[in-house]
Task: structure prediction
Amino acid sequence: MQKELTGVSNVESMADCLRAALSGADQTALANSASIEGLERLSGGANMETWSFDWVGPAGAEPLILRRLPGQACDFEGAVGELTLKDEATLIAVAGGYGVPVPVVRLVLCPEHTLGQGYIMSRERGEALPFRLLADECYREARERLAFQCGQTLGRIHKIPLELLPIGLADHSGMLLFQRAQELLDTHENLSPVLQLGLNWLRDKPRRGPQRTLVHGDFRNGNLLVDEGGLVAVLDWELAHLGDPIQDLGYICANVWRFGSPKPVGGFGDYADLLAGYESVTGIAPTMADIHYWQVHAALSWGMVCLRMLEMYRNGEDPSLERAAVGRRLSEAEIDLLLLIEGESD
Result:
């Protein structure tokens, strides 16, 4: 059920809600004298709102991030992805315990906080904007080691025991992944013959002996926080699910996440470094045929995201500029799919 949030129509009232939520969670005398400073919404994020602020008390300032569903609407039973933000926060904590660099979850929001569905986490040092990471000289050395670090990190994610994951984690393993994709295309009346072509290509060429692990689902340039030393934290876990781990490796190599760079891994690295990092943790060396297969899937997935965003904008479900901007990129995904299937793109 959709609800209208109260008290968050402007920055000042949102700060009051944040102060009350954190004070209630802290429950110390010092918390009552703490304040919210520097509250501002960060750019980017079509699926989620991200707000930066400092929780300032007698002991100093604690840099924090609020991550919540966009706009004024709030549904504590669902999310934009298949994972609720409560489960997303739980998953981040589990991943951190297995050596995955992630922020620290400070507080999971409840209805009484009147801030919507979301959570508050530590604000780590670093940059996530792809164009800065790919262009700024200060990240030159970080770019040289980042693909290897991404491979290592994905290896750690894929080794997390399944029994520790949230119960509500979606299963997209095997043919379940393609059944879900077909249902989505059918829901949108198969408006894109190219997306259907890509799905048919994937179903006709199933992988042999795939594993079933935790998959981040959106591991890419833009969801990686990086400083001058390399990878600092993996962000945006809302699309996490169970499935073939090589899906994550193909995804970060998708053309859409290279941002115009010729480098195949996120626009910053090479296949060899990514795979070497992955093998150093898992002992598994994926083939380039497997990477290519999941690059095709990544292009299909991005196209379906664009299709969904376009429909949300058109039917008034979410008339925000972010939805419209993503929706208009459907044609890019179609071009990528055709090139990959024809073998003209890596």
In short: The domain at 3-122 is CATH 3.30.200 (Phosphorylase Kinase; domain 1). Residues 288-314 form the longest helix (27 residues). The radius of gyration is 20 Å. The CA atoms of residues 127 and 226 lie 5 Å apart.
